[in-house]
Amino acid sequence: MTLPFDPDDLDGDDFGEKRATLEMDHEAAIEHVREVCADVGFGFPVEFSPSEMLNEKVDAGRDPYYVLGACNPAVADRALDATDGRIGSLFPCNMVIEQVEPGEQVVHHVSIMKIARLLGLPSDDAEMDAIIEETGEMVGEVFERLDD
What we know:
alpha+beta
């Protein structure tokens, strides 16, 4: 498969990559990220632990890894309209909490809104630009608070 762009030409800003490191145990980090995201306006229709599932199903031996599927319903509704419903295949906006060592968790996020733009999903470019700006500000606030 040939991509319409060279992935090596992209940097984290192009797809809204954010990272923060938290010095706390895994369960406390999950709760902290959940609280900060909720304060900014995200809810969580989906959350799960790929590490638990993989360790159970295929004896993967993975360290703790948790996904909070964050969503702001008003923004999600607008994004569905701005992409003729196609962005739904990327929902929700995930916040990943990965234990890199005991007492140290990395929180990772990429912007599905920016990824939708890179994939050519928007049917309403102006609205998608507004959504990307709004969600970028919300996620930026989350990561500012996590870094405090």
